[in-house]
Amino acid sequence: MSKTKIICFANNKGGSGKSTTCANVGYCLSQEGKKILLLDADMQMNLTLSFFNEETVLEMARSEKNIYWAIKKQEDLTEYIYNTSYENLDMIPSTTLMSSIEYELFTKWQREFILRKCIEKIKQSDVYDYILIDAPPTLGGWVMNLLCASDHLVIPVEASPWGLFGLANMFEFLEDVRTIVPALSVLGVAITKADTRKNYYKQTLETLKELKDVRIFDSVIRVDSAVEWAQDNSMPVAYFKKYSRSATEYALLAREVAEYGSR
Fold first, then answer.
1. How confident is the model at residue 175 (pLDDT cuts 50, 70, 90)?
2. CATH assignment of the domain containing 252
3. Where in the sequence is the domain holding 198, given as residue range(s)?
4. Does the pTM exceed 0.90?
5. Do residues 36 and 130 make contact, with C-beta atoms less than 8 angstroms apart?
6. Nearest partner of 132 among 145, 160, 114, 151, judged by Cα
7. Mean model confidence pLDDT for the chain
8. Which residues contact 196 (CB under 8 A, 6 or more apart)?
9. I need a surface site. Which of 23, 109, 168, 200 has the fewest CB within 10 A?
10. Could you give the CA distance from residue 255 to residue 29 in angstroms, rounded to a whole number?
11. How many distinct structural domains can be found in the chain?
12. What is the DSSP string of 236-251?
């Protein structure tokens, strides 16, 4: 059995902090000596932009070395990997062409397993400890692909009045996925963009605790301007401002993800 664990960060609600959480958990794990591959599966390319400047990201998007072309050609993903400037951290970038990925998948044989087949060689090589996938904020054939290729799921949820909107749909979709891949587990829900002084944070926490058999990570990611500054500089916040509150919180969350993901 491969030691490599594939973890998908997904939520059909936009603005959940999904890409930022995936990027910073990945970076923090790499700083713990873990070898990490990040896979940007979202046409918005925010995960890629977390590690490369805009000009470089646009070049990647215009090339044929990104996730879209790998899936379209159904090729092994090994040749689509870029090194980042951070030790132990590699990337498979996205492109705006991902807006048509559902069309590309529609006529394919066993379309739910295309990514699983494309990533299998990398997983079995055991080069990486973790492959972290940033999913788009949708529910459909492509997200089904991502979850069918994953061992675990992390659901980032924004602590806001609208943060829980559509979460029931996410869990219903997950049950459909589990009819195909019953081993897929939910590692937990990660609360993001939290202002712990406000009532809606407490309401979010209370509502989430009512979910049956769903772990709520102890590490809460609070609102911090350092995150936005880091994004503006195409850097993970734990690198941009090492001693910021967010850097500490993401490091703690990364340890929780690693602990639960290794069980």
1. very high
2. 3.40.50.300
3. 5-261
4. yes
5. yes
6. 151
7. 94
8. 220, 222
9. 109
10. 7
11. 1
12. -HHHHTTTSHHHHHHH
